[in-house]
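Narrative of activities, Objective 1.

The group set out to show that a structural description can be obtained from nothing but a protein's sequence at a throughput compatible with the screening campaign. Below is one input-output pair from the validation batch, recorded exactly as produced.
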Amino acid sequence: MDLLYKTQTRFLFHSHIRIKIEASWPDAVFDDLYAVLDTVDKKYNSYQSGSYIDLINRHAGSFVDVDDETVRILEQVIALSAFFDGTYDITVMPLIRLWGFYRNHPRRIPTPEEIESVRHLINYRNIEMDGNRVRIGKGQEIVTGSFIKAYATDRLAETMRKAGMHNAIVNAGGSTIRAINRPSDTPWQVSVPHPENEKPLFTLNLDNRCYSTSSQTTAFVDIDGKRYGHILNPQTGFPATNLLLGIATDSCMVGDILSTALFNETPDGFLEKTRQLARHHDLAGFVMNQDSMITATPGFEHLVDRAGH
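Output recorded for this entry:
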């Protein structure tokens, strides 16, 4: 017998976040679930005025008192940043601003001199932590867009499990999808569209894990009729050339970081990096380059539902 579900969608983290739960739960439970996301948004989102990360940014050059959770979040991000050695960096905001992602006037390609002028500001190694105090360098700015919504989704999934919700799915803006189900349940299915024409590439079976995806076609700047995607390579100063990347993991936060960090890799680099990461993280995924060629990890094929494609 098919289960009945109920859903709600609310706007947080500049995204529409849709929660789908079994229909037996009262409608009031949605307020509790979205409250988990709202708390993370207000306390740890760099775009939220008064959040711990916003305070760190506004007092760049000086130590700022933060809570334990801020420290844990930054420690995890820094650990993964160290693995990628510069191709993923949460202090990339000066470069993002340089490319005009937060300007309304006409955009242009930054000159090599302009890129070089902000390169010294982009270095996660300058994030200092002393107990519950955090300091970044003067002129630096942390941006949490590559992980904070996914971190909140992890927190939400934990809350749902503790409440006894064992069959649910969360779609956080399309870039983070968290499935919750028992081992005996049928996996949730996620359709992955082509980034340029929206035609389905494949359907994934998501079994109690998270699917994280990044695309250069969802956010971009238009310069002289050419689109430049929002995922930048801090080492070159230019947008990554891949089109789409998807990662299935046990942790939405890890998956979201990897879906950004791996975007700057060649197909061979993608395979080598994921092979190394698989020693510590349960993951499978794919990358589509600018020619629409797909390269997938060895375990990704097991996620694809050929019958449903």
